[in-house]
Amino acid sequence: MKRRNFIKLSAMGTAAVAVSACENSLIGQKQSTILNFPISSPKIISTWNHGLAANNKAWEVLNKNGSALDAVEQGVRTTESDESNRSVGLGGLPDATGKVTLDACIMDHKFNCGSVSFLQNIENPISVARKIMEETPHVMLSGKGAYNFAIEKGFKHKELLIPETKLAWEKLMSSNSQKKPQINSENHDTIGLLAIDNKGNISGACTTSGWAYKLHGRVGDSPIIGAGLYVDNEIGGACATGLGEAVIKICGSHTVVELMRQGHSPNNACKLAVERIIKSNENLEGLQVGFIALNKKGEYGAYSVYSGFNYALKDESSNKMIDAAYEMEW
Ligand code: ASP
297: how many CB neighbours lie within 10 A of its CB? Predict the structure, then answer.
């Protein structure tokens, strides 16, 4: 597997300074008003290998001077519509009853956020989440209500279980196996994507079909603002992937952003959040969680419980995979 080839990276210890940054055109350069450092040029960071394609799509938006919000939505839509991907949107693995149920959320630079959970038969849940954010007074819609809302807004009903995933589910069900697959470093791959645009604004998106063969009705961290995703435009953003139950317990992404506010670098903030995951779970066997983070200066980082987590970084010079630092060898 591509993700298995890793080296342990040491945590970058440099403290990032928490800032209250805003646009201030001095000799044509954007500066933070408080610490007077230049705000980052456009940058995108996203989870796993599928992040490369999502980053490219998001970059097209940023390149045309589009907003970070448009970029993150367009970026992860690519992953949701990629039939070959087994963990997000179309082609995602189903729950124990053979239904593909989706969780997603989106957050902009003004604390606006939208979310869908337990949504079925809609190919691009992230765009439904954005519609909820922009066209309703709510943050989250769930299940049938989210589906009805999507249909009303013109989204099309679609079967998301494809022949390959149907077959895999049928095989599993007929195997009589008492031990159903667990989330571990092999079978989870939410896409979380964070972007900074030309104005220095940060937005984020997170979308998944969740834990393969989960109980019908299970919702993970990915649609929960503060767990799967959090953005505070003064500081930065963070996304999570891995065992959602463990991420929810520590409000993972919000924790990472708050740690950056306290002065930790993105890498160190992710590491400290992972340490909190480790502390809050007695049984760590196969319990994989990874965080990515991006701050206002454009500094980025990631950290995971086990080896095996990587992320895609796009800026004007390249789009490349980086192996995350981690706590334990898988
Ligand atoms: N975080 C997701 C969930 O718990 C799983 C994943 O990262 O694929 O639903």
Answer: 22
